[in-house]
Amino acid sequence: MERILYILLVILLFGVMIAIHEFGHFLTAKLLKVKVNEFAIGMGPVLWSRQRGETQYSLRAFPIGGFCAMEGEDEDTGDPRAFSQQAAWKRIIILCAGSFMNFLMGLVIVLLLYSGVSAVREPVITDFAPGFAVEGEDGLMAGDRIVSVDGHGIWVYNDVLTYLARNDGQGIDLVVERDGQRLVLEDLPMGRYEYEYEGQTNVGFGLIFGQVQELGVLGKLREGFLITVDFVRTVWISLGDLVTGRVGVDQLSGVIGIVDVVSEMGAQSASWVDGVLNVFYFMALIAVNLAVMNLLPIPALDGGRIFFILLNGLIYLVSRRRIPERYEGYVHGAAFVLLLVLMAAVAFHDVWKIFA
Fold this sequence. Notes:
- The protein is an alpha+beta fold.
- Helices cover 50% and strands 21% of the residues.
- The chain is built from 8 helices and 12 strands.
- The chain has helices at 2-31, 88-114, 157-165, 217-244, 255-267, 272-294, 302-319, 325-355; strands at 36-52, 55-70, 119-121, 127-128, 145-149, 152-153, 172-178, 181-188, 193-197, 200-204, 207-208, 212-214.
- The strands form 5 sheets. It has a 4-stranded antiparallel beta sheet, with helices on one face. A two-stranded antiparallel ribbon has the order 1-2.
- A hairpin with a 2-residue loop joins strand 7 (172-178) and strand 8.
- Helix 2 (88-114) crosses helix 4 and helix 2 packs antiparallel against helix 6.
- The relative contact order is 0.12.
């Protein structure tokens, strides 16, 4: 029963996430005087609708998102207030607004979660585990603040653990701050090993981080913002891993897989409160993930439409011509079909993993 409640919570959050995305398009379209034919919360059959001015506002049966239907999104309808008739900068703002709202949603969730946090751990080494091999002036010393790991800047404490774990075992490059100066330490022979510290057996790199920083209001805002921006970097690195083959396509998860993983994480938490907080934290990451993915220059996504706007501008500067709208529509339509096929394949794989 508890697992079902978490599943319902995650599905609801997904719906809110997509609805907020569409609200970003709707709000900027209205502000920029673009005609909006319908703004809907939910998908499927209409449960309730009301016409106010030129826009129909609808509540639909399935709480899994929504849409903002603007006049002339994919073709020129002749209406001077149609989306296709607007200046490039207006269209780009409207297209970016959905992703901005998703990023804002992630930021707000993180800020709310950190509103009750009084202190955070800092990436400052306070001790070493027995057996740590590179302690000393030419290596690491207690009091060193880790600034970067293998070229990745350390914005929050968890970055240290993340980027140490990503090392391929060929030697770790660190930048540390020691006595007010930055030192570059290259090819440190650090790897995971088993050790005992304060009566507990651990597997790690042997670094002990015991220094904490008290957080005031500004500190909480700063920490929340850095964590949210760090989510963006995490998404980019994940995409890079997918392109380079470090992560296989079989490890992709869609909505079904995410719902399963997040609901299981919530159900395994120590308490109901911890479970809900963990779910919200993970959904903040998903919201930022959606913001980044939607701006990729892939046809049918907002980023693909922005790419065509910029490409059209470049072609017009060179040749005084534009790509015919019907051809751009064909590209977006074909890409949308391919995305649906990919989503179906990922959903099938998610179901297979759950039952397997």
